[in-house]
Specification:
The protein is of the alpha/beta class. The chain folds into two domains: 246 residues, HUPs (Rossmann fold); 34 residues, no CATH class. It is 48% helix and 12% strand. Helix 2 links the parallel strand 3 and strand 4. It starts with 14 loop residues before the first strand and ends with a helix.
């Protein structure tokens, strides 16, 4: 006979969560998922009732699950969706369509920044430069800057991102083994703003796996694009995920143990290492370490490369 749900005891279990020793039916899983988002937000004091929360929505499953789940967990919170169109042929427009569908479904406003319209440059243009093998790094730089810019225009001081537990552990492992201690310090549930006018970055899905985000979207009917970014194939981060999955095979709690260990290491490092203070970029006013921020450097380079043919 099919196993019954650990929570309600009446419906057949469809989702097995070994780390929590739970087997849940569809409805109980959705309730459990939303409850964990609520507990995570409250545990790390990510935002207050009177704050507007901007959710960075890419069009993918993680940020889609985040926006939908946050709306259910905090129905009275003022929430807006933020989206960046990077100009990747076929892919970016599809992502924007799904982001707009999602915002309409949950009943929130959506603010969109179109990189091509703003800068007359798309992420694809970097494929024609020396950055073609570092396109994911460039993408990250552009998105960090662009989401901050949209948040400023929308009057948002809290920016929630869809980084899940797998993402965080992958970044943490990479930072640890490459001795990027300052980067490891920044990988925490709540990241204070570098300047007073910037946003506080929060990660409500830091204790949620990518698999559970996918299940939540499928069970709750949350729209998201299933198309993989054409530039992410072969990304090194995926190799880290394979290592994590292997280590988790005989220990369902491994990822949670590793996450807690890294967060503790991050606190210790923060007490020991003095981070270099950022200064305003002379071109855009965003944080920089030497007068010109990484975003402006990348934009200046690609525009010059394009003008030279």
């Amino acid at each position: 006979m099919p196993r019954k749900c650990s929570r309600c005891g009446s419906e057949d279990a469809e989702v097995n969560l070994p780390y929590a020793r739970l087997s849940l039916c569809r409805d109980c899983f959705l309730e459990y998922y939303v409850g964990r988002i609520k507990r995570t937000v409250e545990k790390y004091r990510m935002f207050h009732e009177d704050e507007t929360v901007g959710v960075a929505v890419s069009g993918g499953k993680d940020s889609a699950a985040l926006l939908h789940g946050l709306r259910r967990a905090f129905p009275n919170q003022k929430i807006v969706a933020l989206h960046v169109n990077l100009g990747i042929p076929e892919y970016s427009d599809r992502c924007q369509e799904e982001a707009e569908r999602l915002a309409d479904l949950v009943g929130v406003d959506i603010h969109i920044l179109d990189l091509k319209r703003e800068e007359n440059v798309s992420l694809s243009d970097f494929r024609r430069t020396v950055f073609k093998k570092k396109i994911c790094s460039v993408c990250g730089t552009i998105k960090r800057h662009s989401f901050e810019e949209i948040a400023r225009r929308a009057g948002v001081k809290v920016l929630a991102t869809g980084h899940n537990m797998d993402d965080m552990l992958s970044f943490m492992l990479n930072s640890f083994f490459t001795k990027q201690w300052t980067q490891l310090i920044r990988l925490k549930p709540v990241l204070p703003p570098l300047f007073s006018w910037m946003t506080r970055k929060v990660k409500p899905l830091i204790r949620t796996s990518g698999r559970e985000n996918l299940l939540y979207c499928l069970y709750a009917g949350v729209p998201f694009t299933e198309i993989e970014c054409p530039y992410s194939r072969g990304a090194k981060a995926k190799e880290k995920l394979k290592i994590l999955e292997t280590l988790s095979m005989n220990n369902p709690n491994f990822k949670y143990q590793a996450l807690d260990a890294f967060l503790e290491i991050s606190k210790i490092l923060e007490e020991k290492i003095r981070l270099q203070e950022a200064t305003p970029c002379v071109k855009c006013g965003f944080p920089s370490l030497n007068g010109v921020c990484a975003y402006c450097k990348r934009m200046a380079y690609v525009k010059e490369a394009l003008s030279n043919g």
